[in-house]
Amino acid sequence: MNTALSDNRQPRETAAPERPAGLEVVLLKRTFVLPWNQFLYAEGGDDEIRAAFTTHDVLIKGSGLNSVLVELAAQRLARLEQPGRADWLASKGGRLIREVSVVRIEAGHDVS
After folding, report:
1. What is the number of other CB atoms lying within 10 angstroms of the CB of residue 95?
2. Strand ranges for 1-112 from DSSP E
3. What is the pLDDT of residues 81-100, one digit of tens each?
4. Rounded to the nearest 5°, which phi and psi values hold at 37?
5. φ, ψ (nearest 5 deg) of residue 38
6. Which of 29, 54, 58, 105 has its CA 20 to 30 A from that of 37?
7. Nearby residues of 68 by Cβ (< 8 Å), 6 or more positions away
8. What confidence tens digit (pLDDT) does each residue in 30-82 have?
C-alpha cells in the first residue's frame, strides 16, 4: 500500500496497483469501513466531493480535491482521515482537506 499526503499532516492511503477491499474513513470520534462493492459513484469538484455508497455518503470539503475524486472513482483510496482543526493551517501545496463527514442513508430517503 502506498501513502499519499494531501499535505504534511493529512495522509490518505492508496493501494497500488490492486484495489483495496474498502474505504476506511477515520473521523475524530468514529471510524467507518465502507466496502468498495457497495460504492455507487463519486461526484464533485475541486472544493467538495460526495462519494455515494449504498448505506452511507462520504462528504469531503476542502480545496484542490480533483485528484481525490479520481482516486475515489478508480476505487484506489484505502484510507481517508478527518483533519483536526489545527491541521487546516498546515497545508503546503494546493490540496487541503478541511472536513470529512459520513452520513447514513435512511431507507426510503431520496438523496439529491
Report:
1. 20
2. 2-5, 11-14, 22-26, 31-35, 39-44, 48-53, 56-63, 77-81, 96-104
3. 988 866 654 455 567 889 99
4. -70, -5
5. -105, 5
6. 29
7. 6, 12, 49, 60, 77, 95, 97
8. 999 999 999 999 999 999 999 999 999 999 999 999 999 999 999 999 999 98
Indicate the helix (H) or strand (E) that contains 70. Answer: helix 66-73
Can you give the pLDDT at residue 106? 86
Q: Cell numbers for 10, please give them.
A: 493529512
Return the CA Rg of the chain.
13
- Say what the pTM is: 0.75
| pLDDT computed for residue 14 by the predictor | 56
CA distance 66 to 52: 16
Largest CA distance in the chain: 42
Mean pLDDT of 13-17: 56
5 contacts 67 by C-beta, under 8 angstroms: no
C-alpha grid cell for residue 7?
499535505
**Number of residues in the chain:** 112
